[in-house]
Design goal:
By secondary structure, the chain is an alpha+beta fold. Among the domains are: 211 residues, no CATH class; 53 residues; 100 residues, Phage tail protein beta-alpha-beta fold, CATH 3.55.50.30; 100 residues, no CATH class. It is built from 20 helices and 25 strands. The strands form seven sheets. Strands 9, 12, 13, 14, 15, 16, 24 and 25 form an eight-stranded antiparallel β-sheet that branches. Strands 17, 18, 19, 22 and 23 form a five-stranded antiparallel β-sheet that branches.
């Protein structure tokens, strides 16, 4: 019987793989000639486990098969059982392959494929020549396939040849395993030797038809026992060596650990000593605690810790006392500092506090302005600072950007949309005047490009993008504008006045009322200012860009460049809102007064017999009283000269009086000086009284109030005395009685400066609108500032009442002046001059030289006063007084 040629090779390969795999227990070592047909133990076990799983049987667990057992006989029996199981499984596998070929051949016959069926049946007979069905089908399909030579005899001859080849291969495998096992014993590798001997033993037991020249099973068993004994001896020696090494390593580790602990404790004690010497008692205690944790029985560490704890408590007590003294001194320093009047107009906090204030910044939705990265800010500054003339003659956008890149060193990157448009247009521009690079970019991109483009800076690169792409760069930002739209309050003052009866302060006013103050800029005006001057087209063309007004706040959604322009505009507007004007006023009152009063009176003799001189008026008629009770100035009855003659007495009296008081009660009066009374007793008695007084006064009174205003604001300074007085009485009539209800009012006297200050745009000049007022209460002859008067209520049943009638001298000045920053302005002088020259004496006698001295009185009073108002105005810029931050 002849087997088809095209299927012979595949059939032999399958048969060898199945049959040899079922007979070999372990594979050959590397370099073995039988490596291609032998299988090792582990793959075989894995294969059997997988196969059992596929067939539904329980898998053979690898860890359930022990590698080493103490009894060699038991191990050999187990190996034999496993070998028989492997052979049985191999036979089952071979029968399955044969049945598979038969089934495929039958299906090929049903499809009409006779040659295909004949080849499959031939493969089945080749694997199992004893299979009756396969042999019968092979012979039946031979005629259909056109193979007349295909007989069972030929197939049987091929099978015998194959069996002989298998037997020779197994003999070679046995010899190879025995050789490798002996070599393993010689090389002191009993593990490998045992593995080879067991493989040879398995091959011998499952191939009883081996030739007699092959090794016997007893010889191989002896070799297996020898390898097992040598392996057990080697494992025991290895375990002993490992145990000895482990004990030695443990001892060495324990010694090293003790040494390390000792060294660490010594280091901790040294560290504690260093910390103690540095007065770092807390650090010393921590080091000692760590040492005690490592060695709780260390008495040295315990003693040192006790000492360090005591020292720590003492140091803490010293620190507390030091801090108490420092705080005590600081408290009194603060009290002294509070009592010192500062000389500076504006005083900033210290540098650290001001640094925190500056870092606070405005509140916003995002850090779009102050949070721009430093590299982006540097690129923008570079584009703004570099100024160059330019000339482009038909250049493309990439050429223009390349030129600007070479000049500035800034990298430019065009988006894909810009690249699509850049090839379709060129630029022809020229300007000999140096322009900033940012301005050149705006001219090229926004004015000369169609469609319009723009640029933005991100990640340190200037990116050229279209307007549509710029929508992604929109930032929502909030601007607080309350300091710009705030309306400052004008603090004006009312003019001085004494209110007539039946009026109040609201119905009796003096002067013209001022207009209501206006803010620096209204919110609507500011909104229009931004939209009309900063990117005016974008607010209308692009609905994504918006500006919304809220009370005291603007919410803007725009690109970062527009936000910077808005921020710059608001900063410029705020530049003058923080400007302050400090006004220092000096009210200087200069006075030069002189008074002199010299006179001689003949009076002072005791009246004789109770009778005096009563020739000045009629007694009882009023005015001068009676001789016993004279009234009024110059009504004395005592004589000044008396002569008692035989024919009668001669009496005389001279008293030189002024019709008004010499001097002023609040400046100089005639009191004081020298008073001499001379009495001459002879035939004629004379009593002379001489008064002589001379006074000089030179005074300089300065009131220097100061006021700080915001530029454009109105304020005032008041230095006033308020006095309550009885202005009038309101009679309330009851049954048989009249009750007087007093009406009280307040009279004010003093100095008031009402001023409005405006700084010029360049902060060099100051315009002042000044309204100084000086009000002074005029005293009466007795020096009373609130003279009293007795008045009647107009009814017979009411008593007279006393009201007060103050007299107020008011001096006002209204002017507007412009002066340089730091200059002093003299508003003007309010001058007052009083001259009194009194002369009282007897006619004729007062004109005789020398004699006139005894019969006259001369009084002279001169007072010259001048009030000067000096104003010094200074512009105070808070930013000039800021501390320097480092």
């Amino acid at each position: 019987m002849k087997i088809p040629t095209r299927s012979t090779t595949s059939i032999l390969a399958i048969a060898l793989a199945v049959l040899l795999g079922s007979c070999n227990i372990t594979g050959a070592s590397p370099g073995d000639d039988s490596q291609e047909v032998a299988a090792t133990l582990d793959p075989r076990i894995e294969w059997l486990a997988n196969y059992a799983t596929e067939e539904g049987a329980a898998p053979v667990a690898m860890d359930a098969m022990p590698v080493h057992v103490s009894a060699p006989a038991v191990q050999l029996d187990d190996e034999a059982d496993r070998a028989r199981l492997a052979a049985s499984l191999a036979d089952d596998r071979l029968a399955t392959l044969v049945e598979g070929f038969v089934d495929e051949g039958l299906m090929a016959l049903e499809r009409g494929e006779a040659e295909r069926a004949h080849d499959l049946f031939a493969s089945a007979v080749q694997l199992d020549p004893t299979h009756e069905v396969a042999r019968d089908l092979y012979q039946r399909t031979a005629a259909l396939a056109g193979d007349d030579d295909a007989t069972l005899g030929a197939l049987a001859a091929d099978a015998r040849t194959l069996t002989k080849v298998r037997r020779q291969q197994r003999g070679m495998d046995i010899e190879h395993h025995l050789s490798m096992g002996r070599q393993g014993l010689a090389n002191d590798d009993p593990e490998a030797a045992l593995r080879h001997f067991e493989d040879a033993l398995t091959l011998i037991r499952f191939n009883p038809d081996m030739s007699r020249n092959a090794a016997t099973e007893d010889e191989v068993l002896a070799l297996v026992r020898q390898a097992q004994l040598q392996r057990e001896s080697q494992l025991a020696a290895r375990d002993n060596e490992l145990q000895r090494r482990a004990l030695q390593a443990q001892e060495e580790w324990d010694n090293a650990e003790r040494n390390r602990t000792t060294i660490k404790i010594q280091g901790l004690l040294a560290s504690a000593n260093d910390a103690f010497l540095r007065d770092d008692f807390v650090g010393a205690i921590e080091s000692l605690d760590e040492a005690l944790r490592l060695d709780p029985a260390n008495t040295d560490a315990e003693d040192l810790r006790r000492i360090a704890t005591k020292a720590s408590h003492e140091a803490a007590a010293r620190d507390i006392r030091r801090a108490y003294r420092k705080q005590w001194n600081r408290t009194f320093d603060d009290l002294k500092y509070d009592s010192v009047i500062p000389n500076d107009v504006i005083t900033f906090p210290n540098g650290d506090k001001w640094a925190q204030t500056v870092a606070r910044g405005p509140k916003s939705f995002a850090s779009s302005l102050g949070g721009r990265p430093a590299d982006d800010r540097a690129v923008l500054d570079q584009l703004d600072e570099i100024r160059i003339p330019y000339e482009f003659d038909g250049n493309t956008l990439p050429e223009v950007l390349a030129y600007l890149r070479d000049v500035t060193g800034v990298n430019f990157l065009m988006s894909s949309d810009v690249l699509d448009e850049a090839d379709n247009q060129d630029y022809s521009l020229r300007d000999r005047t140096p322009q900033s690079v940012s301005r050149i970019l705006k001219i090229v991109l926004e004015d000369q490009s169609v469609p319009a483009m723009t640029f933005t800076v991100r990640d340190g690169i200037a990116r050229i993008i279209t307007l549509e792409e710029s929508h992604g760069d929109y930032v929502l930002e909030m601007y607080d504008i309350r300091d710009l739209t705030f309306t400052p309050t004008d603090h004006s003052t009312l003019d001085f006045n004494l209110l007539p009866s039946g009026t109040d302060s609201e119905s009796f006013t003096d002067g013209v009322e001022d207009e209501e103050p206006l803010p620096l800029v209204s919110a609507d005006t500011l909104l229009s200012l931004i939209q009309d001057n900063i990117a005016p087209l974008t607010w209308q063309d692009d609905p994504e860009r918006s500006i919304t007004q809220m009370p005291g706040t603007l919410i803007v959604r725009q690109t970062p460049d527009v936000h910077e322009q808005i921020h710059s505009l608001l900063t410029d507007l705020r530049a003058n809102t923080t400007t302050l004007i400090h006004i220092q006023t000096r009210f200087i009152e200069v006075e030069d007064s002189f008074l002199e009063d010299i006179g001689v009176d003949l009076r002072g003799l005791d009246p004789s017999q109770g009778s005096g001189l009563d020739d000045f008026g009629q007694p009882g008629a009023g005015g001068v009283g009676t001789p016993a009770n004279p009234e009024g100035i110059g009504t004395g009855i005592d004589p000044g000269a008396f002569y008692s003659g035989s024919n009668g007495d001669l009496k005389g009296r001279t008293e030189n009086l002024f019709d008004s008081v010499l001097g002023e009660s609040d400046v100089l009066t005639g009191g004081g000086g020298m008073s001499i009374e001379a009495l001459f007793l002879k035939d004629t008695n004379v009593s002379a009284v001489m008064r002589a007084v001379s006074k000089y006064q030179n005074s300089n009174i300065v009131n220097a109030p100061s006021l700080t205003l915001r530029s454009g604001q109105r304020g005032n300074i008041k230095v006033l005395d308020n006095r309550t007085y009885v202005r009038d009485f309101e009679p309330e009539i009851a049954t048989g009685a009249v009750i007087a209800q007093p009406e009280l009012d307040v009279v004010k006297s003093g100095i008031v400066l009402d001023v409005r200050a405006v700084a010029s745009a360049d902060r060099r000049f100051i315009t002042l609108e000044l309204r100084p007022t000086i009000a002074t209460l005029v005293p009466d002859a007795n020096g009373n500032l609130l003279p009293e008067a007795l008045v009647s209520l107009g009814t017979p049943n009411a008593n007279n009442v006393i009201i007060q009638l103050p007299e107020l001298a008011i001096q006002r000045l209204r002017t507007t002046a412009t002066l340089p920053d730091g200059a002093t302005l003299l508003l003007g002088g309010l001058k007052t001059t009083i001259e009194q020259d009194f002369d009282s004496g007897m006619p004729f006698l007062s004109d005789i030289p020398l004699v006139s001295f005894f019969f006259s009185r001369q009084g002279e009073y001169t007072s010259r006063r001048k009030l000067l108002i000096l104003l010094t105005a200074n512009i105070v810029a808070p930013e000039e007084h800021e501390p320097i931050l480092r």
